[in-house]
Amino acid sequence: MQIPSRGAAAVLLAFAACAAEPAAPAPPPADGARLDHPLQAAIMALHHSTRRPDRLAGDAAEAALVVARLEYITTALREPQYGAIEPVTVPRLEQARAALRAALGIPATLPGATVSAAFAEAARRMAAGDRTGAAEALAPVTGGRPPAAMLAGLDQLVPPPIVADAVASAEHAWHVRLSPTEE
């Protein structure tokens, strides 16, 4: 029997962790959104936010929602009921998530549900004018960095281009493969 290398073992463990990842709670919909499906609402809101990512700079609450929605979408689309999605969509979302996590210093090992919930709560608190509470909400996902540093990162966040590309792929997949058909 051949023993896998450390790199191969790490990849297998990461894949197993992703497959067993719990579902993330749905982040809040965009203002005025009237969509019945929380996944569709998250995809559409994220698509709107990432079309011109430079608009996020200086809006930490909206940037936090981008993180929450990307984590939610990436986790949700792994669920069995979305098995018909194009095979490239989830890997693109995972690459986008990794790039966004790297940009903000979010540990790669954290479950998407944990990250999504923390950033959704931080966004809610920032929208209410409570930056101290937002920092507290982010504490579990900072990897030991000061939460204020992550808030500063959100203030300056311009998502890497791969985020918009992956979200566009998810939006296309929703319309082509996932949305209910009209009869």
Explain how this protein is built.
The chain is mainly α and 183 residues long. It is built from 8 helices and no strands. The longest helix is centred in the C-terminal third of the chain and has 18 residues, at 161-178. The protein starts with 5 loop residues before the first helix and ends in a 5-residue tail after the last helix. Mean pLDDT is 81; it is low at 1-20.
Annotation keywords:
183 residues; mainly alpha; 8 helices; disordered N terminus
Describe how the helices and strands are arranged.
Elements: H1 6-19, H2 38-51, H3 60-76, H4 89-104, H5 112-127, H6 131-138, H7 147-155, H8 161-178
Helix pairs in contact: 2-3, 2-8, 3-4, 3-5, 3-7, 4-8, 5-6, 6-7
Give the gist of this structure.
The protein has helices at residues 6-19, 38-51, 60-76, 89-104, 112-127, 131-138, 147-155, 161-178.
Q: What Rg do the Cα atoms give?
A: 16 Å
Mean pLDDT over the residues: 81
The number of helical runs is 8
Structural class: mainly alpha
Gross geometry: globular
Distance between the termini: 55 Å
> Based on DSSP secondary structure assignment, what is the total number of beta strands?
0
Share of residues in strands: under 5%
Instruction: Give the helix level as a range of percent.
Output: 55-70%
Could you give a short account of the major beta sheet?
none
Extract low-pLDDT stretches.
Answer: 1-20
Question: What order do the SSEs take from the amino end to the carboxyl end, as H and E?
Answer: HHHHHHHH
